[in-house]
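Closing statement on the nickel (II) ion sub-project.
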Amino acid sequence: MKSILNQSRQRLDHVRAIRRELHRHPEIGVDLPRTKALVLRELNRLGLDVRENVGGGIVADLHGPDEASGGMIALRADMDALPVQEETGLDFASQILGQAHVCGHDAHTAMLLGAAALLTDLRDRLPTGVRFLFQPNEENQPGGAKFMVEAGCLDGVSEVYGLHVWPGRPTGWFGTRPGPLMARPDVFGVTLRGKGGHASAPHQCVDPVLAACHLVTQLNTIVSRRVPPGERAVLSVTRLDAGTGYNIIPDMAFLQGTVRTLSASTGDMIEGAMRAMTDAVAAGMGVQADFDYLRGFPVVVNDSAAAAKAARVLGEMSEMVEGNIDPVMAGEDFSQYQQKVPGCFVFMGCGPCAADGRGGLHSSCFCLDEDCLPWGVTALAALALDRG
Ligand code: NI
């Protein structure tokens, strides 16, 4: 494994150049023409069996023995950036106003292309075929993975793996766990309609601001009072809009937020409790409530055998591998692949955050240590080279 790591290091210049090219030209959502053109250019150069549009993503196969009977191993990268104005000051910083690769998907795409090149060289050692999945729109619900899966991107696949860079952990560190790793990220919005009027005459109005304040407080009791103490859940009200002036009681108040859970049953229980509480507060305060709830990506649940394989394979190349890390409450649509075939999602260290905590994922000054790139290339290649 160390020799593969050395080969990956020799390819660092190319992988880094790809990453920087993507970083300069970030694209968002499903509309990734420039990014896809680069991916296709690199894949076609390798002579892989490439399909340009499978549910909006790019799929490339490197054929190997035994793939018809045993199934292929799929490796996935996401390609999309975020609507954030980059503030890193890097000389390859985003050239597009208000868009930046601050979740490391540029690195994910570059590393998977690096792994495709490395595995093409090592194809004689492959136990089975390898499928490379390049996915758009990870950052927005309902995500790009769902449509790729529906279009058959996992047909003939028996295992799937993916990586995410993880700031705050050193280069060479890998972490994963069997079972739930990342949360179901649900979204809710509540509109409260009252009756506006003069702030000096509240008795002639129905005040949606006071109702919204009560509701925010009530909703915050659900996780502490209704969810069993051993279980993880987050409910955050993140937005509260109402009113236009100090002397006007408004007609409406709007609140929005997210619920994060590691099991569908807890997520569904919280949704039900929120709905009941919203109705009760609305009835008590005399406002009318519209409650919207969108269930997010499924929970990322790592298959125990795939997680054990990942920990073992990565442990052969690094001494900094943790096979049973704490789950995190962010979401990932890698879970859509895991609904179909067993798989494992892995975090990989990409260097420290700033001391003040800035520089994490989705931050305008997110940076990664590019020395992590060969580690990611090697990790992906090693997962494909090991049949378990
Ligand atoms: Ni991400």
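Residues 103, 105, 138, 164 surround nickel (II) ion (CB under 6 Å). With this model delivered, the sub-project is considered complete and its resources will be redirected to Aim 3.
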